[in-house]
Structure prediction request, 417 residues.
Amino acid sequence: MSNYKIKKQVLRRFLAAFCTLGLLAGNASSSALAADSENWLGFRGDGTSASASAPSEIKVGEGGNVAWKVSMPGKSVAGAIVVGDRVITTSSGGQEGEQLFITAVSLSTGKKLWEQSFRATGRPFCHPTSANAAPSPVSDGERIFAFYSSNDLICLSLEGDLLWYRGLGFDYPKAGNDIGMASSPIVAEGAIVAQVEAQGDSFAIGIDAATGMNLWRMARPRQSNWSSPVAIDRPDESVEVVMQSGSNIVGVDPRRGNVKWIIEEGGDKIASGTPAGDLLLLPGSEMMALNVGESATTPEVMWRNSRLSPRNASAVLNDDRFYSLKGSVLVAGTVADGEQVWQKRLSGLGGTWATPVAAGGRIYIFDQSGVGLVVEDQGDSAETILEVDLGEPVLASPAIAGGKLIVRTNNSLFCFE
Prediction:
């Protein structure tokens, strides 16, 4: 038997053993926890990128409001999450990004609590502006699930202990692309749902949060897709996961993977959907609002507006309004009818990839050079009230928890209070 086959068998047993560890970890809460003022449990918190409060300003240097800044062991374009006093962030390093890191930092002090490192089992390659640490991690409040462009999915306890490890790139070698994967997973009904969509082996998968074992796997259109799934509540008190691609939009049962409904219309392949009460805002060539609150069958399209669809970043909810970032232009629309309220050109803002966050009528926006703007919604218009330069690229969506703003740059973690 060749050395390659021996190593492959050893690795397969190694990964299977880690999955078995999950069986010993016991069952935690079976459903996702809603975001609140003290937690930010995944990409965009609860999927809306909104919070009740955040610092009114962001300043660095003398007289600034940086509570702490921590250097990270590698590069990341993934947003940080917050679980209680723990800020969790992922990084990747090495010549090709094959080294995987998960770091926990105290929200109150900035002290590093623990750090774990692993080696990718799948393809770590990505565009130079991105990183293997591209998907944002997610938590159910009791465990941490870190996903990477190499399709490695790692489950840790809040104390940093390894519970299970899945090398999806090892299990499904044709999954992935050299530009990089970036879709962030979600937790719904005790299942981790991830979209692993590319030109090769393209699929969505549901994995049991407690054990790391497959619950289901379904084929998806063979095309690159970086948008993230979204969990929605339906009128019959069920939870569905909505996934969009350039070919269709589907609602699936998170634990069984059966398709509840499908719309044969392509959506955006970068920006993700945004829950807004009974509506789900889905970006594409038009912003489309689906009514998910009245019927358990295929949701009805309530309105469309091509002027309100974002470019790269996902739309941000703020009460009865939402904001779409179109490069250096910010547009506000009303959730109920999809009417444009105002449009604001943002002077000094460069290329944007990070989804903004909103709190108290203010929108916090960062570009890929590290310039940040605070834009205030003043009703019929908007005004830029503050500008800051972090001096490091920002491609990750910020997090808000405990009234603090956490910003992950390529190589550092900032906390403003």
Q: What stands out?
A: The helical segments are 3-25, 168-171. Residues 1-33 have pLDDT under 50 and may be disordered.
